[in-house]
Design a protein that fits this description.
This protein has 668 residues and is α+β, with helices and mostly antiparallel strands. It has 3 domains: 240 residues, Beta-galactosidase, Chain A, domain 5 (Distorted Sandwich); 145 residues, TIM Barrel; 102 residues, Immunoglobulin-like, CATH 2.60.40.1180. Helices cover 15% and strands 34% of the residues. The protein has a 9-stranded antiparallel beta sheet, covered by helices on one side. Strands 21-22-23-27-30-31-32-33 form an 8-stranded parallel beta sheet. The protein has a 6-stranded antiparallel beta sheet with strand order 7-6-12-19-18-15, with no helix packed on it. Strand 32, helix 10 and strand 33 form a beta-alpha-beta unit. It is globular and about 85 Å long. The protein starts with 18 loop residues before the first strand and ends with a strand. The relative contact order is 0.10.
């Protein structure tokens, strides 16, 4: 089994170095925007993000030992290692007859791995008898910081997402009960806490349908990880003594508070559009195409998979042509991203040498995928725990050097699909010999860190396309993500997004603010209503509609990236809308030199079939402005609108949108 190359252990921008504070009772580890604290405990007692405390109490191991509830005594933590990129803390704690040891590693993006090790207490020569009958790790969260959820995958290994959004939404009043999932996030629109584990190795939960629970009540919401519901097989019937010891129980998992990094203020200016291959933007083959692209406002062009003959490879039989086209794009102020994915092609010369070792396989040895494309070939999903990680990385380096492309459009590359291919170290065996899948989160994370450093060192960006997977340990190392393709095959998601996707699910998965990574939505570029009220845009293909070009220009002129965002779910002090199907969000900015406040109002009718007369009441004093001399302009049509006593009224068609520029004198 060949190993892949590890990413360099250094801090990448925009993150800041890891800092550590400590005294006799507490160790605190801080990264950009977040702090984890351990106060006389081997597990975190405080997790804060952007200055907001997430925990309602310390993380804790609960359970039953020798017929009684586990009661932990105060513990101790020791700083084992610290540099700019990471801090490692070891911890110990005891309860009646039980010892807890932990190893916690906090990396600069806030990802925290936690190794939990449990063993019976006893001195050398003592006969040890212990019955551990139940064990859970509980994370009590502040209720207002645990309103939304997202988990992945929707089913089994995640290689085939379902056409639904069942894995995202508002935490139900009666909570959630899930089988093992490798990633679960709980939070609100601006942040939260993600939990992850690569497998349920060592977990022992009968049936497994409630391995993970989210349990809300009035005082706090508990994320509960049910590790054992019966005596561990490793300890059953064992009586330990000096030369016949219990095997320690070990559980590896991790946490990551979000957002993982600051959202870049200029992401609106990337203006990304998709093109099938390099010939679609070749001025020789399509005279005037680059001028048309610049006139349409395109600043970043994605060249899709057809640009290379062998899927997901860095090989091109037209390197000079590709370089010429990329150079021509640069002359027109357009950056170029190249497609790479997650597959090994049967057309690749590497197939016979590598397929058995690198393919993603389930517990029965069945490979995943099977995409067919021209020229005639099939592609199967590969796993980046294998040495194919190095193959992909080196292919990308070679193509960057030969063609001058600026960045990457990655198709699912950051998704840690479940795999049981033991040839490269995936999968594990249960005590009865059953083969189970593992999710190579840390290996995929390593690949993404390597690619992020490579592309950012050249001034480029990484755009990730994925479906239903916002696993932050890997998502942290992309510049934007593009979600929703799994929904486009069902018309109901196009014709009634509010009724099918739902506002809660969109805010949990498709918005990106809660994760710290900008998002774009996979839908027709003209379908502005649903994404726009969430601060999200659809991404166009080669034919950029004039409406989207105008929207780009309006948002650039307003400089929305530096404006204050007032979304519909939390702006009641500023805006009131009727009827119920109308939602409005606003970007607001003060202009001290002009002594005015400006707002860019985004209003949408989310009804799929009814035109409405929308009314929006604007409380200008909520943003330090006076409404008496305020004015309104339809920003898309450059037409004045009547603003009467701080109210706007206008018709909105089903799924219709209105963008309004408001100006009001500062201070009333």
């Amino acid at each position: 089994m060949k190993a892949y190359t590890s990413a360099a252990d250094k801090v990448l921008p925009p993150w800041t170095p890891v800092t550590v504070t400590q005294d006799e009772a507490e160790i605190g580890v801080s990264v950009w925007g977040r702090t984890y604290r351990f106060h006389e405990s081997a597990l975190p007692t405080s997790v804060s993000t952007q200055g907001r405390e997430l925990l309602a109490g310390p993380m804790r191991l609960t359970g039953i030992i020798n017929g009684s509830a586990i009661k932990w005594e105060p513990g101790r933590t020791i700083l084992y290692h610290h540099n700019d990129a990471a801090a490692v803390i070891v911890g110990c704690q005891r309860a009646d007859g039980l010892i807890l040891n932990t190893t916690v590693r906090v990396e600069y993006d806030g990802m925290m791995t936690v190794d939990v090790k449990l063993m019976p207490e006893g001195k050398s020569g003592d006969e040890v008898r212990v019955q551990l009958q139940q064990l859970s790790l509980e994370v009590p969260l502040q209720p207002d910081a645990a309103r939304l959820f997202h988990y992945w995958p929707q089913w089994y290994t995640g290689t085939g997402p379902h056409k639904n959004v069942d894995n995202s939404g508002a935490v139900p009043a009666d909570g959630l009960a899930l089988p093992f999932k490798p990633f679960v996030w709980v939070g609100w629109e601006d942040g939260g806490l993600g939990w992850f584990a690569e497998s349920d190795r060592s977990w022992q939960v009968g049936g497994g349908s409630s391995a993970i629970e989210v349990v809300p009540n009035e005082d706090f919401t508990t994320l509960r990880l049910n590790l054992l519901d019966s005596e561990p097989v490793l300890w059953k019937g064992v009586e330990g003594w000096w030369r016949h010891q219990f095997m320690p129980l070990a559980f590896r998992m991790g946490f990551q508070a979000t957002p993982v990094k600051p959202v870049p203020p200029d992401f609106h200016e990337w203006r990304i559009a998709h093109y099938g291959d390099h010939t679609a933007i070749d001025d020789r083959e399509h005279p005037g195409c680059l001028e048309r692209m610049t006139d349409a406002g395109v600043r970043t062009a994605i060249i899709h998979e057809a640009a290379v003959p062998i899927q997901n490879s860095g090989f091109t039989d037209e390197p000079d042509e590709l370089r010429r086209i990329v150079d021509a794009c640069h002359e027109h102020g357009i950056k170029v991203l190249m497609y790479f994915g997650y597959e090994l092609s049967t057309l690749s010369p590497r197939w016979c040498d590598e397929a058995d070792d690198v393919l993603n396989k389930d517990h029965e040895g069945v490979p995943s995928g099977g995409w067919w494309r021209q020229p005639q070939q099939r592609e199967l999903i590969c796993c980046y725990r294998s040495h194919h990680q190095d193959t992909l990385f080196n292919d990308i380096v070679g193509l960057l050097d030969r063609t001058g492309i600026d960045g990457l459009y990655l198709d699912q590359t950051a998704v840690p699909f479940g795999c049981a291919n033991e040839n490269h170290g995936c999968g594990y065996r249960r005590p009865d010999g059953e083969l189970r899948v593992t999710f190579p989160i840390l290996a995929v994370r390593n690949l993404m860190k390597r690619l992020y450093e490579l592309i950012h060192s050249r001034g480029g960006i990484i755009s990730l396309h994925q479906s239903s997977c916002c696993a932050t340990p890997t998502l942290a190392f992309v510049d934007s993500y593009y979600d929703g393709e799994h929904l486009i095959w069902d018309d109901k998601f196009k014709t009634d997004p509010a009724g099918t996707i739902g506002l809660d699910a969109f805010r949990a998965e498709f918005m990106g603010r809660n994760f710290g990574v900008p998002a774009e939505f996979y839908c027709k570029a003209e379908a502005l209503a649903f994404p726009l009220i969430h601060g999200v845009r659809p991404r166009p293909n080669s034919d950029v509609p004039k409406s989207l070009t105008k929207l780009w220009d309006v948002m650039t002129a307003f400089d929305v990236g530096s404006a204050e965002w007032h979304p519909y779910w939390s702006n009641q002090s500023l805006l009131a809308t009727t009827p119920d199907t109308v939602k409005a969000s606003a970007y607001v900015r003060s202009e001290p030199d002009k002594k005015e406040v400006r707002a860019l109002l985004v209003a949408a009718n989310l009804s799929p079939d009814k035109e409405v007369e929308a009314r929006i009441d604007i409380r200008f004093d909520a943003v330090g402005a006076g409404g008496a001399a305020a004015s309104a302009i339809d920003a898309m049509r450059d037409e004045p609108m009547e603003l009467a006593d701080g109210s706007l009224e206008f018709p909105l068609k089903p799924l219709g949108t209105r963008i309004v520029l408001l100006r009001a004198p500062a201070g009333g």
